[in-house]
Amino acid sequence: MVRVFLLLLFSSLSLYAVEPPKTEIRAVWLTTVYGLDWPKKAATTAHDTESQKEELLHILDRLEEANFNTVFIQARLRGDLIYRSTIEPFSRVFTGKHNQKPGYDPLQFVIDECHKRRMECHAWFVTFPLGSEQGVRLQGNSSTVKRQPKLVKKHKGEWYLDPGVPETSDYILSLVRELVSSYDVDGIHFDYIRYPEQPQSFPDKSLYSKYGKGVSLADWRRDNINRLMACIYDEVKKMKPWVQVSSSPLGKYNRTERAPNTGWTAYESVFQDPGQWMKEGKQDMIVPMMYYRHDDFFPFVDNWARNSNGRLIVPGLGAYRTDEKEGGWTINDITDQIDYSRYFGGAGCAFFRCEHILENRELYNELKDNYYAHPAQLPPLPWLNKRLPEAPEEVKVERSGDCLRLYWDKPAGEEEALTYTLYYSLTDSIGHSSAKSILATGLRSTEFYLPVKEKEQGYLFGITSSTRYHIESLPSRETYYYLIEHPK
User: Fold this and answer.
1) For residues 77 and 269, what is the distance between their CA atoms, to the nearest angstrom?
2) Of 58, 132, 334, 397, which sees the most CB atoms within 10 A?
3) pTM > 0.90
4) In 3-state terms, what secondary structure has residue 127?
Protein backbone atom coordinates (compact mmCIF):
# COMPACT_ATOMS: atom_id res chain seq x y z
CA MET A 1 0.00 0.00 0.00
CA VAL A 2 2.88 2.38 0.75
CA ARG A 3 4.27 1.81 -2.75
CA VAL A 4 0.86 2.37 -4.35
CA PHE A 5 0.43 5.61 -2.40
CA LEU A 6 3.87 6.87 -3.40
CA LEU A 7 3.30 6.06 -7.06
CA LEU A 8 -0.07 7.81 -7.02
CA LEU A 9 1.52 10.84 -5.36
CA PHE A 10 4.36 10.78 -7.84
CA SER A 11 1.88 10.50 -10.74
CA SER A 12 -0.10 13.46 -9.45
CA LEU A 13 3.09 15.53 -9.32
CA SER A 14 3.68 14.75 -12.99
CA LEU A 15 0.23 16.03 -13.98
CA TYR A 16 1.01 19.57 -12.93
CA ALA A 17 3.59 22.02 -14.19
CA VAL A 18 5.86 21.54 -11.19
CA GLU A 19 8.81 23.87 -11.48
CA PRO A 20 12.08 22.00 -12.02
CA PRO A 21 14.65 22.20 -9.24
CA LYS A 22 17.09 25.07 -9.26
CA THR A 23 19.89 22.66 -8.36
CA GLU A 24 20.46 19.27 -9.97
CA ILE A 25 23.00 17.25 -11.94
CA ARG A 26 22.18 16.67 -15.60
CA ALA A 27 24.84 14.32 -16.91
CA VAL A 28 25.68 12.08 -19.83
CA TRP A 29 28.23 9.33 -20.22
CA LEU A 30 30.26 10.19 -23.34
CA THR A 31 31.68 6.87 -24.47
CA THR A 32 34.96 6.63 -26.39
CA VAL A 33 35.52 2.85 -26.36
CA TYR A 34 34.89 1.39 -29.83
CA GLY A 35 34.08 4.96 -30.96
CA LEU A 36 30.51 4.53 -29.72
CA ASP A 37 29.81 8.22 -28.99
CA TRP A 38 33.05 9.89 -30.06
CA PRO A 39 35.09 9.77 -32.20
CA LYS A 40 33.08 7.92 -34.83
CA LYS A 41 36.09 7.62 -37.14
CA ALA A 42 39.83 7.26 -36.61
CA ALA A 43 41.89 10.17 -37.93
CA THR A 44 44.57 9.37 -40.50
CA THR A 45 44.95 12.90 -41.93
CA ALA A 46 44.99 16.45 -40.61
CA HIS A 47 41.53 16.93 -42.12
CA ASP A 48 40.25 13.86 -40.24
CA THR A 49 41.65 15.27 -37.01
CA GLU A 50 39.80 18.55 -37.49
CA SER A 51 36.64 16.58 -38.28
CA GLN A 52 37.03 14.68 -34.99
CA LYS A 53 37.25 17.95 -33.10
CA GLU A 54 34.25 19.42 -34.92
CA GLU A 55 32.28 16.29 -34.10
CA LEU A 56 32.97 16.79 -30.41
CA LEU A 57 32.00 20.47 -30.60
CA HIS A 58 28.69 19.54 -32.21
CA ILE A 59 27.96 17.05 -29.42
CA LEU A 60 28.75 19.59 -26.70
CA ASP A 61 26.78 22.36 -28.45
CA ARG A 62 23.67 20.20 -28.42
CA LEU A 63 24.16 19.27 -24.77
CA GLU A 64 24.58 22.95 -23.93
CA GLU A 65 21.41 23.80 -25.85
CA ALA A 66 19.50 21.34 -23.68
CA ASN A 67 21.03 22.73 -20.45
CA PHE A 68 23.07 19.69 -19.49
CA ASN A 69 25.73 20.57 -16.93
CA THR A 70 27.97 17.49 -16.53
CA VAL A 71 29.88 15.25 -18.94
CA PHE A 72 31.50 11.96 -17.92
CA ILE A 73 34.13 11.53 -20.64
CA GLN A 74 35.55 8.03 -20.91
CA ALA A 75 39.24 8.74 -20.34
CA ARG A 76 40.48 5.22 -19.49
CA LEU A 77 38.99 2.49 -21.65
CA ARG A 78 40.50 -1.01 -21.34
CA GLY A 79 43.98 -0.35 -20.02
CA ASP A 80 44.39 2.39 -22.64
CA LEU A 81 43.86 6.12 -22.37
CA ILE A 82 42.75 9.22 -24.26
CA TYR A 83 45.35 11.46 -22.56
CA ARG A 84 49.12 11.69 -22.26
CA SER A 85 50.62 9.17 -19.85
CA THR A 86 53.91 7.55 -18.96
CA ILE A 87 52.10 4.54 -17.50
CA GLU A 88 49.61 3.19 -20.06
CA PRO A 89 49.30 3.40 -23.86
CA PHE A 90 47.22 5.86 -25.84
CA SER A 91 44.04 4.32 -27.24
CA ARG A 92 43.84 3.35 -30.91
CA VAL A 93 40.30 4.77 -31.17
CA PHE A 94 41.56 8.19 -32.29
CA THR A 95 44.11 7.20 -34.97
CA GLY A 96 43.56 3.49 -35.58
CA LYS A 97 46.93 2.63 -34.01
CA HIS A 98 47.82 2.08 -30.38
CA ASN A 99 50.10 4.66 -28.82
CA GLN A 100 49.72 7.02 -31.77
CA LYS A 101 48.25 10.37 -30.74
CA PRO A 102 46.02 12.40 -33.08
CA GLY A 103 47.95 15.69 -32.94
CA TYR A 104 45.92 17.05 -30.05
CA ASP A 105 45.15 15.98 -26.48
CA PRO A 106 41.55 14.66 -26.55
CA LEU A 107 40.99 14.87 -22.80
CA GLN A 108 42.31 18.43 -22.57
CA PHE A 109 40.18 19.37 -25.57
CA VAL A 110 37.02 17.97 -23.97
CA ILE A 111 37.75 19.69 -20.64
CA ASP A 112 38.33 23.07 -22.29
CA GLU A 113 35.25 22.86 -24.48
CA CYS A 114 33.00 21.70 -21.62
CA HIS A 115 34.16 24.61 -19.49
CA LYS A 116 33.48 27.07 -22.32
CA ARG A 117 29.91 25.76 -22.36
CA ARG A 118 29.47 26.04 -18.58
CA MET A 119 29.56 22.28 -18.07
CA GLU A 120 31.70 20.27 -15.67
CA CYS A 121 33.96 17.57 -17.08
CA HIS A 122 34.56 14.38 -15.08
CA ALA A 123 37.12 11.81 -16.25
CA TRP A 124 35.38 8.44 -16.53
CA PHE A 125 37.81 5.72 -15.51
CA VAL A 126 37.16 2.01 -16.29
CA THR A 127 38.93 0.45 -13.32
CA PHE A 128 39.66 -3.28 -13.54
CA PRO A 129 38.91 -4.58 -17.10
CA LEU A 130 41.86 -4.65 -19.50
CA GLY A 131 40.15 -6.08 -22.57
CA SER A 132 39.95 -9.26 -24.60
CA GLU A 133 42.87 -11.41 -25.69
CA GLN A 134 42.76 -9.76 -29.10
CA GLY A 135 42.58 -6.26 -27.65
CA VAL A 136 45.55 -6.88 -25.38
CA ARG A 137 47.50 -8.38 -28.28
CA LEU A 138 46.90 -5.25 -30.36
CA GLN A 139 48.39 -3.14 -27.56
CA GLY A 140 51.59 -5.17 -27.81
CA ASN A 141 54.35 -4.75 -25.27
CA SER A 142 52.78 -1.52 -23.99
CA SER A 143 49.76 -3.36 -22.59
CA THR A 144 49.26 -3.61 -18.84
CA VAL A 145 49.11 -7.40 -19.20
CA LYS A 146 52.66 -7.38 -20.56
CA ARG A 147 54.02 -4.64 -18.31
CA GLN A 148 52.34 -5.72 -15.05
CA PRO A 149 51.86 -9.52 -15.30
CA LYS A 150 51.73 -10.02 -11.51
CA LEU A 151 48.65 -7.78 -11.24
CA VAL A 152 46.41 -9.41 -13.84
CA LYS A 153 44.11 -12.39 -14.22
CA LYS A 154 42.31 -13.89 -17.21
CA HIS A 155 38.65 -14.71 -16.65
CA LYS A 156 36.09 -15.88 -19.23
CA GLY A 157 38.37 -14.83 -22.08
CA GLU A 158 38.94 -11.28 -20.71
CA TRP A 159 41.86 -9.76 -18.82
CA TYR A 160 41.41 -7.91 -15.52
CA LEU A 161 43.47 -6.21 -12.88
CA ASP A 162 43.03 -8.39 -9.79
CA PRO A 163 41.62 -6.41 -6.83
CA GLY A 164 43.07 -9.00 -4.44
CA VAL A 165 46.69 -8.34 -5.35
CA PRO A 166 47.89 -5.64 -2.90
CA GLU A 167 50.05 -3.94 -5.55
CA THR A 168 46.98 -3.43 -7.78
CA SER A 169 45.91 -0.54 -5.54
CA ASP A 170 49.34 1.07 -5.94
CA TYR A 171 49.11 0.75 -9.70
CA ILE A 172 45.63 2.30 -9.93
CA LEU A 173 46.66 5.06 -7.54
CA SER A 174 49.60 5.90 -9.81
CA LEU A 175 47.16 6.36 -12.70
CA VAL A 176 44.85 8.49 -10.58
CA ARG A 177 47.72 10.71 -9.40
CA GLU A 178 48.93 11.20 -12.97
CA LEU A 179 45.48 12.13 -14.25
CA VAL A 180 44.41 14.44 -11.44
CA SER A 181 47.75 16.26 -11.26
CA SER A 182 47.93 16.82 -15.02
CA TYR A 183 44.38 17.89 -15.89
CA ASP A 184 41.84 20.37 -14.58
CA VAL A 185 39.06 17.79 -14.30
CA ASP A 186 36.12 18.56 -12.05
CA GLY A 187 35.80 14.94 -11.00
CA ILE A 188 37.06 11.41 -11.52
CA HIS A 189 34.35 8.81 -12.05
CA PHE A 190 35.00 5.08 -11.51
CA ASP A 191 33.22 2.46 -13.57
CA TYR A 192 33.61 -1.29 -13.20
CA ILE A 193 35.16 -0.90 -9.76
CA ARG A 194 33.87 -4.38 -9.01
CA TYR A 195 34.48 -8.04 -9.66
CA PRO A 196 33.46 -9.34 -13.09
CA GLU A 197 30.30 -11.21 -14.02
CA GLN A 198 30.23 -14.85 -12.86
CA PRO A 199 32.83 -14.16 -10.16
CA GLN A 200 32.52 -17.65 -8.69
CA SER A 201 35.20 -18.81 -11.13
CA PHE A 202 37.43 -15.73 -10.84
CA PRO A 203 40.92 -17.20 -10.18
CA ASP A 204 41.80 -15.58 -6.86
CA LYS A 205 41.49 -18.52 -4.45
CA SER A 206 45.21 -18.70 -3.70
CA LEU A 207 45.26 -14.99 -2.88
CA TYR A 208 42.24 -15.45 -0.63
CA SER A 209 44.05 -18.25 1.21
CA LYS A 210 47.04 -15.97 1.68
CA TYR A 211 45.26 -12.73 2.62
CA GLY A 212 41.73 -13.72 3.68
CA LYS A 213 42.53 -13.80 7.43
CA GLY A 214 39.48 -15.83 8.39
CA VAL A 215 36.77 -13.70 6.72
CA SER A 216 34.48 -15.07 4.06
CA LEU A 217 35.51 -14.87 0.41
CA ALA A 218 32.69 -12.38 -0.24
CA ASP A 219 33.74 -10.09 2.61
CA TRP A 220 37.39 -10.30 1.60
CA ARG A 221 36.53 -9.27 -1.95
CA ARG A 222 34.39 -6.38 -0.71
CA ASP A 223 37.19 -5.29 1.61
CA ASN A 224 39.63 -5.22 -1.31
CA ILE A 225 37.44 -2.75 -3.18
CA ASN A 226 36.54 -0.78 -0.05
CA ARG A 227 40.22 -0.20 0.75
CA LEU A 228 40.97 0.83 -2.82
CA MET A 229 38.10 3.30 -2.90
CA ALA A 230 39.19 4.82 0.42
CA CYS A 231 42.79 5.16 -0.81
CA ILE A 232 41.66 6.77 -4.07
CA TYR A 233 39.42 9.25 -2.26
CA ASP A 234 42.08 10.25 0.24
CA GLU A 235 44.72 10.62 -2.49
CA VAL A 236 42.51 12.82 -4.68
CA LYS A 237 41.50 15.05 -1.77
CA LYS A 238 45.13 15.43 -0.74
CA MET A 239 46.00 16.65 -4.24
CA LYS A 240 42.94 18.70 -5.23
CA PRO A 241 40.20 18.60 -2.60
CA TRP A 242 37.58 20.09 -4.94
CA VAL A 243 37.88 17.23 -7.46
CA GLN A 244 34.81 15.05 -6.96
CA VAL A 245 35.14 11.28 -6.62
CA SER A 246 32.19 9.25 -7.87
CA SER A 247 31.39 5.79 -9.15
CA SER A 248 28.76 3.89 -11.11
CA PRO A 249 27.92 0.67 -9.25
CA LEU A 250 25.24 -1.75 -10.35
CA GLY A 251 21.78 -0.16 -10.18
CA LYS A 252 20.49 -2.38 -7.38
CA TYR A 253 22.54 -1.95 -4.22
CA ASN A 254 21.46 -5.00 -2.26
CA ARG A 255 18.55 -7.32 -1.56
CA THR A 256 15.99 -5.74 0.72
CA GLU A 257 12.77 -6.84 2.43
CA ARG A 258 10.79 -5.08 -0.29
CA ALA A 259 12.82 -6.77 -3.05
CA PRO A 260 14.29 -10.00 -1.66
CA ASN A 261 14.52 -11.75 -5.05
CA THR A 262 15.94 -8.92 -7.05
CA GLY A 263 18.65 -10.89 -8.82
CA TRP A 264 21.90 -9.17 -9.78
CA THR A 265 23.01 -6.67 -7.10
CA ALA A 266 26.10 -4.62 -6.36
CA TYR A 267 26.64 -6.00 -2.85
CA GLU A 268 25.87 -9.67 -3.26
CA SER A 269 26.77 -10.34 -6.91
CA VAL A 270 29.92 -8.33 -7.68
CA PHE A 271 31.12 -7.39 -4.17
CA GLN A 272 30.60 -3.63 -4.30
CA ASP A 273 29.57 -1.92 -1.08
CA PRO A 274 28.81 1.70 -2.06
CA GLY A 275 26.76 2.19 1.10
CA GLN A 276 29.93 1.61 3.09
CA TRP A 277 31.87 4.02 0.87
CA MET A 278 29.30 6.73 1.57
CA LYS A 279 29.08 5.87 5.27
CA GLU A 280 32.86 6.28 5.57
CA GLY A 281 32.75 9.52 3.55
CA LYS A 282 34.79 8.09 0.67
CA GLN A 283 32.46 9.13 -2.16
CA ASP A 284 31.05 12.47 -3.21
CA MET A 285 28.52 11.04 -5.64
CA ILE A 286 27.06 7.65 -6.53
CA VAL A 287 25.66 7.22 -10.05
CA PRO A 288 24.11 3.73 -10.01
CA MET A 289 23.39 2.13 -13.38
CA MET A 290 19.60 1.86 -12.94
CA TYR A 291 18.67 0.58 -16.39
CA TYR A 292 15.40 -0.98 -15.21
CA ARG A 293 11.73 -0.02 -15.06
CA HIS A 294 8.89 0.10 -12.55
CA ASP A 295 9.42 -2.02 -9.43
CA ASP A 296 12.96 -2.77 -10.54
CA PHE A 297 13.65 0.99 -10.37
CA PHE A 298 11.56 2.91 -7.85
CA PRO A 299 12.31 0.88 -4.66
CA PHE A 300 16.03 1.01 -5.43
CA VAL A 301 16.05 4.80 -5.67
CA ASP A 302 14.64 4.76 -2.15
CA ASN A 303 17.32 2.29 -1.05
CA TRP A 304 20.14 4.43 -2.45
CA ALA A 305 18.70 7.53 -0.79
CA ARG A 306 18.52 5.74 2.58
CA ASN A 307 22.20 4.79 2.32
CA SER A 308 23.49 8.11 0.98
CA ASN A 309 24.87 9.62 4.23
CA GLY A 310 24.22 13.03 2.71
CA ARG A 311 26.22 12.32 -0.45
CA LEU A 312 24.77 12.85 -3.91
CA ILE A 313 22.68 10.09 -5.44
CA VAL A 314 22.32 10.51 -9.21
CA PRO A 315 20.40 7.62 -10.81
CA GLY A 316 21.88 6.53 -14.12
CA LEU A 317 19.02 6.12 -16.60
CA GLY A 318 19.09 3.76 -19.57
CA ALA A 319 18.37 6.11 -22.45
CA TYR A 320 19.54 3.30 -24.74
CA ARG A 321 16.47 1.32 -23.67
CA THR A 322 14.32 3.48 -25.94
CA ASP A 323 15.90 1.64 -28.88
CA GLU A 324 13.57 -1.10 -30.13
CA LYS A 325 16.40 -3.62 -29.98
CA GLU A 326 17.15 -2.71 -26.35
CA GLY A 327 13.65 -2.81 -24.89
CA GLY A 328 11.58 -0.26 -26.78
CA TRP A 329 10.89 1.92 -23.75
CA THR A 330 8.63 4.93 -24.17
CA ILE A 331 9.76 8.47 -23.44
CA ASN A 332 7.42 8.42 -20.43
CA ASP A 333 9.40 5.52 -18.98
CA ILE A 334 12.41 7.86 -18.84
CA THR A 335 10.60 11.00 -17.70
CA ASP A 336 8.76 9.08 -14.96
CA GLN A 337 12.16 8.09 -13.61
CA ILE A 338 13.36 11.70 -13.72
CA ASP A 339 10.24 12.79 -11.84
CA TYR A 340 10.63 10.10 -9.21
CA SER A 341 14.31 10.82 -8.71
CA ARG A 342 13.64 14.55 -8.32
CA TYR A 343 11.03 14.13 -5.64
CA PHE A 344 12.33 11.12 -3.73
CA GLY A 345 15.98 11.79 -2.99
CA GLY A 346 17.92 12.02 -6.25
CA ALA A 347 20.34 14.88 -6.90
CA GLY A 348 19.76 14.68 -10.65
CA CYS A 349 20.14 12.05 -13.37
CA ALA A 350 22.79 10.74 -15.75
CA PHE A 351 22.02 9.14 -19.11
CA PHE A 352 23.67 6.20 -20.78
CA ARG A 353 24.71 7.00 -23.29
CA CYS A 354 25.18 10.34 -25.05
CA GLU A 355 24.19 9.18 -28.54
CA HIS A 356 20.87 7.86 -27.26
CA ILE A 357 20.02 11.34 -26.01
CA LEU A 358 21.17 13.31 -29.04
CA GLU A 359 19.84 10.93 -31.71
CA ASN A 360 16.44 10.37 -30.09
CA ARG A 361 14.69 13.55 -31.21
CA GLU A 362 11.60 12.98 -29.08
CA LEU A 363 13.57 12.41 -25.87
CA TYR A 364 16.03 15.21 -26.59
CA ASN A 365 13.24 17.72 -27.24
CA GLU A 366 11.34 16.63 -24.15
CA LEU A 367 14.41 17.35 -22.04
CA LYS A 368 15.36 20.57 -23.82
CA ASP A 369 11.85 22.06 -23.96
CA ASN A 370 10.40 20.85 -20.67
CA TYR A 371 12.49 19.01 -18.09
CA TYR A 372 15.67 21.02 -18.72
CA ALA A 373 14.10 24.17 -20.12
CA HIS A 374 15.99 26.33 -17.60
CA PRO A 375 19.64 26.06 -16.50
CA ALA A 376 20.36 24.31 -13.21
CA GLN A 377 23.13 24.92 -10.71
CA LEU A 378 25.22 22.01 -9.51
CA PRO A 379 24.49 20.72 -5.99
CA PRO A 380 26.73 22.06 -3.21
CA LEU A 381 29.38 19.85 -1.61
CA PRO A 382 29.37 21.15 1.99
CA TRP A 383 31.16 18.08 3.41
CA LEU A 384 34.24 19.21 1.45
CA ASN A 385 34.15 22.94 2.14
CA LYS A 386 31.45 25.27 3.49
CA ARG A 387 33.12 28.61 2.87
CA LEU A 388 30.75 31.25 1.53
CA PRO A 389 32.44 33.32 -1.19
CA GLU A 390 31.99 37.03 -1.71
CA ALA A 391 29.62 38.16 -4.47
CA PRO A 392 30.54 40.58 -7.25
CA GLU A 393 29.28 44.09 -6.48
CA GLU A 394 26.93 44.29 -9.46
CA VAL A 395 26.35 43.46 -13.11
CA LYS A 396 27.27 46.18 -15.58
CA VAL A 397 25.35 46.36 -18.87
CA GLU A 398 26.08 47.88 -22.25
CA ARG A 399 24.51 47.50 -25.67
CA SER A 400 26.63 45.58 -28.19
CA GLY A 401 24.85 45.22 -31.53
CA ASP A 402 22.04 42.69 -31.15
CA CYS A 403 23.26 41.71 -27.69
CA LEU A 404 23.56 43.09 -24.21
CA ARG A 405 27.07 42.73 -22.85
CA LEU A 406 26.84 41.83 -19.18
CA TYR A 407 30.10 42.07 -17.24
CA TRP A 408 31.33 42.26 -13.69
CA ASP A 409 34.48 42.22 -11.58
CA LYS A 410 35.72 39.26 -9.60
CA PRO A 411 35.10 39.98 -5.91
CA ALA A 412 38.04 41.68 -4.25
CA GLY A 413 40.03 39.35 -2.04
CA GLU A 414 38.79 36.16 -3.75
CA GLU A 415 41.91 34.33 -4.90
CA GLU A 416 40.33 30.95 -5.64
CA ALA A 417 38.71 30.06 -8.96
CA LEU A 418 35.03 30.98 -9.03
CA THR A 419 32.08 30.32 -11.26
CA TYR A 420 29.13 32.70 -11.60
CA THR A 421 25.36 32.51 -11.88
CA LEU A 422 23.51 35.29 -13.68
CA TYR A 423 19.94 35.96 -12.58
CA TYR A 424 17.40 38.11 -14.35
CA SER A 425 13.81 39.25 -14.27
CA LEU A 426 11.50 41.16 -16.61
CA THR A 427 9.55 42.44 -13.61
CA ASP A 428 10.54 44.40 -10.52
CA SER A 429 12.12 41.53 -8.53
CA ILE A 430 14.38 38.52 -9.01
CA GLY A 431 13.36 35.17 -7.56
CA HIS A 432 16.75 33.81 -6.59
CA SER A 433 15.27 30.48 -5.48
CA SER A 434 13.72 29.77 -8.87
CA ALA A 435 15.32 28.00 -11.83
CA LYS A 436 13.29 30.27 -14.11
CA SER A 437 15.32 33.25 -12.89
CA ILE A 438 18.66 31.77 -13.97
CA LEU A 439 19.96 33.29 -17.17
CA ALA A 440 23.23 31.31 -17.11
CA THR A 441 25.21 29.37 -14.52
CA GLY A 442 28.64 27.77 -14.38
CA LEU A 443 30.21 30.85 -16.01
CA ARG A 444 33.99 30.85 -15.70
CA SER A 445 34.59 34.25 -17.28
CA THR A 446 33.35 37.65 -16.09
CA GLU A 447 31.19 38.53 -19.07
CA PHE A 448 28.19 37.18 -20.90
CA TYR A 449 26.44 38.24 -24.11
CA LEU A 450 22.65 38.15 -24.07
CA PRO A 451 20.96 38.24 -27.50
CA VAL A 452 17.99 40.63 -27.53
CA LYS A 453 15.13 40.86 -30.01
CA GLU A 454 12.77 43.22 -28.20
CA LYS A 455 12.66 46.87 -29.22
CA GLU A 456 11.86 48.00 -25.70
CA GLN A 457 12.18 45.96 -22.54
CA GLY A 458 13.18 46.48 -18.94
CA TYR A 459 15.63 44.01 -17.39
CA LEU A 460 16.71 43.41 -13.82
CA PHE A 461 20.04 41.59 -13.41
CA GLY A 462 21.87 40.10 -10.47
CA ILE A 463 24.82 37.78 -9.98
CA THR A 464 26.31 35.37 -7.46
CA SER A 465 29.66 33.61 -7.29
CA SER A 466 30.28 29.99 -6.35
CA THR A 467 33.37 28.12 -5.20
CA ARG A 468 34.57 24.91 -6.82
CA TYR A 469 32.60 23.18 -4.07
CA HIS A 470 29.41 24.77 -5.51
CA ILE A 471 28.85 26.93 -2.44
CA GLU A 472 26.96 30.02 -3.63
CA SER A 473 27.43 33.55 -2.34
CA LEU A 474 24.71 35.98 -1.38
CA PRO A 475 23.26 37.92 -4.35
CA SER A 476 24.91 41.06 -5.68
CA ARG A 477 23.29 44.45 -5.83
CA GLU A 478 20.64 44.41 -8.58
CA THR A 479 21.07 46.32 -11.84
CA TYR A 480 18.15 47.71 -13.83
CA TYR A 481 18.57 48.27 -17.56
CA TYR A 482 15.95 49.54 -19.97
CA LEU A 483 16.45 48.51 -23.58
CA ILE A 484 15.20 50.93 -26.23
CA GLU A 485 15.30 50.58 -30.02
CA HIS A 486 17.44 53.64 -30.67
CA PRO A 487 19.70 54.35 -27.71
CA LYS A 488 20.74 57.96 -27.35
Assistant:
1) 23
2) 334
3) yes
4) coil
